[in-house]
Amino acid sequence: MSIRVLPDVLISQIAAGEVVERPAAALKEILENSLDAGATDIQVELEQGGIKRIKVSDNGGGIAHDELALALMRHATSKIASLADLEQVASLGFRGEALASIAAIARVQLSSRSADADHAWAVQVDGGQLAAPAPAARGIGTTLDIQDLFFNTPARRKFLKTDATEYAHCAETVRRLALARPDVAFSLAHNGRVQLRLNAEPAAARVRQVLGEAFESNTIAVEAAAAELRVSGWVIRPSAATGSRDSQHVFVNGRYVRDKLIVHALKEAYRDVLHHQLNPAYCLFIELPPDRVDVNVHPAKTEIRFRDSRGVHQFLFHAVERLLSTPVEGAAPVVQQASPLFNPFVVPQQTPMPLQVNEAMAFYAPLAAHPSSGAPLSLPVAASTEPAHDAPPLGYALAQLHGVYVLAQNAQGLVLIDMHAAHERVVYEKLKTALDARAVPAQTLLIPVALTVDARDAAEISPHLDQLRDIGFELSITSPTSVAVRAVPWLLRHADPVELTRSVLREIAEFGVARLLAERRNELLATLACHGAVRANRHLTLPEMNALLREMEATERAGQCNHGRPTWFQVSLKELDAMFMRGR
Ligand SMILES: Nc1ncnc2c1ncn2[C@@H]1O[C@H](COP(=O)(O)OP(=O)(O)OP(=O)(O)O)[C@@H](O)[C@H]1O
Ligand SMILES: [Mg+2]
Questions:
Q1: The dihedral formed by the CA atoms of 385, 390, 393 and 397, expressed in degrees to the nearest 10
Q2: CA pair distance 438, 440, nearest whole angstrom
Q3: For residue range 527-554, what is the model confidence (pLDDT) as tens digits?
Q4: Is the whole model's pTM more than 0.85, yes or no?
Q5: Number of H helices, E strands in the chain
Q6: 233 CA distance to ligand 1 centroid (A)?
Q7: What's the pLDDT tens digit per position in 305-355?
Q8: DSSP code, position 417
Q9: What is the Cα–Cα distance from 256 to 180, expressed in whole angstroms?
Q10: Which of the residues 52, 211, 295, 459 could staple to 48 if both were Cys, CB 3.0 to 4.6 A apart?
Q11: Contact 551 CB / ligand 1 (< 6 Å)
C-alpha cells in the first residue's frame, strides 16, 4: 500500500480513541469546557450510563455564531495561541481536540448563545459531518448534546461495560469536578432521575456533600505553604483509614490528577502511623505557578509532570507528616482553654502522687535516656496541690483495667489508654531517635543465649555482624546452625532476647540485611518495639502508669500505635453526664 494522508474524520476517530475511551471521558471534556467558559451552573443529563446520551448545559460565556463550526474542528481552540501560552496554561483545555474527537464518534448537537447575540445558534454533527448552523432558542451559555457514543466505531463500543458501570464512572467524574470547584453549582440526572444537586458553597461544605460526613468528621485539615507551593484540604485520621484507595483526590491548580509522585509522598507521610495494608484517604488541593507544572503529557490530561518533582514530594510529605506526628493530638489545646471545672464533685488532687523513682524504674527507665549519658531522669512529679486544670493533657492515672487499659483523669474527664499500644509507639519513636543519632546502646546479657538457626540465616548474617551491632544486637555464629546472642538493644532489654533475635532473623531471611537496615528499617524497629512494649496483664503501679502518660505527651504520633490503631480516647465529663442523664 502506498503512503497516503488520512482523512480528517479518520484522524479524529483515531484521536478519539485516546481522548474519549468511555462516556465518562467525554463528559469530563465537556464539563471542563463549561468550567473554562466561566460557567457557574452546570446541568448534566445522562441516559443509559452516558452511552445513549450525554447532555450538558451551562451558563458560561457561550460561542459566537461564526465560531460554532470552528469549535468542532480539530486543533481549533480559543485557549492558547503560542508555546508560551501553553507553558502558562491556566485553563483546563488547551489542545482544541476534545469536541472534534467526540464529534467524530457520536451524533452531536452544539447549541450556544454568546452574551452579545440576539438568539442562540445550533449545529449538528453526525460522525464528523457538519450541517449548517440554524437558529435555536436558549439563554446565554452552551448546551452540548451527545448521542449514541461510538455508533460508528463498533469495535470501541464493544469495550464499554454495563450502563451501571459507565454511569458510575460518569458520576465519579462529576463528583471530582464538583470537589475542584465548590463555587459552581452542579446537577446530575440519570435516565430522567436527579442523582445529585449541589449549590455553590464553601469548600468544606462541598467536601461534606460529595465525600460524605464520615469523611469530613474523620479528617484533619491541611494548610501549608512554602515559596511558590501551597496545599490545602483534608487528610484522614490514621485510625479511620481503610484498605480502599477510592478516596484519594488530588487537584493541581484545579485539575484532577492521578500522580504517582503525590500518592507516594502521602503514603510515605502515613508510613509510620498506618498499617501497610491500609491506604490513606485525602482530598488535597495543590497550587503552584502554571509554568512549574507540565499538563501536556497525557491525552486525558490526568497526568502531569512537575518541574521540581523532588521539591513537591518533600513539601507534601512534610506538610502531612508534621500534621500526623503532633504528639497527643487535640488534647493540649483543650486543656489550655482552662475552663472552670464542670463537676463540683471532682476532687482535683485526688490521684497524683509523687513518683517514686525506684518504683517507676522497672517500667519507665528502659524508656529513658541512655544511662551512660548521665542525664538525670527528669520525671515530671505532680505536686499534690496542683489544680486539675493545670494537669498535663493526659492527666494522671487512676487505675489499670483488666490488665489492658489505663484509666486516667484529666481536665476534660476520663482518659482511657491502651497501654500496650501506647507504650509500643513510645518505644518505637525512641528506637528511631536512637538509631538516627547512631547511639543504640546495648545491654550485654549476663549469660549469652544460644539459638538454633537455619544454615542459610547464619550465612546471611555472618558478613553483617557489625551492622547488627550498630542496632544493638551482638550476635556471634557459634556453628553453621547456631547463633549466640550476647547483647540486645538496651531499650528492649526487658523483652525476651530469644524472641527478639528470632524476629530479627525472620525479617533478615525475608529482606536481607542491607534492605532491612535501610528501607525496611522502620518496619524492623516497629516489630522490635512491639516485643519491647509492656504486655497485657502486666501489673503497672500508678507511678509507672503516670510515667507512660508523660512519655506519650512527649512522643510524636503518640495518638496511634505503630499499626495506626488509636492509643487513647477521651471521655468528657459532658459525655459521662449525658450517659447518666445528669442535667445541670
Ligand atoms: N461550553 C463551552 N462554552 C464556551 N465555549 C466552548 C464550550 N465548549 C467548547 N468551547 C469552545 O470550543 C473550543 C474547542 O473546545 P475543545 O474542548 O475541543 O478544545 P479545548 O477546550 O480548547 O482544548 P482540549 O482539547 O484540551 O479540551 C474551545 O477552545 C472553546 O473556545
Ligand atoms: Mg476542552
A1: 10
A2: 6
A3: 888 888 888 888 889 989 999 999 999 8
A4: no
A5: 21, 23
A6: 29
A7: 999 999 999 999 999 998 988 765 443 333 222 222 222 233 333 333 333
A8: E
A9: 7
A10: 52
A11: no
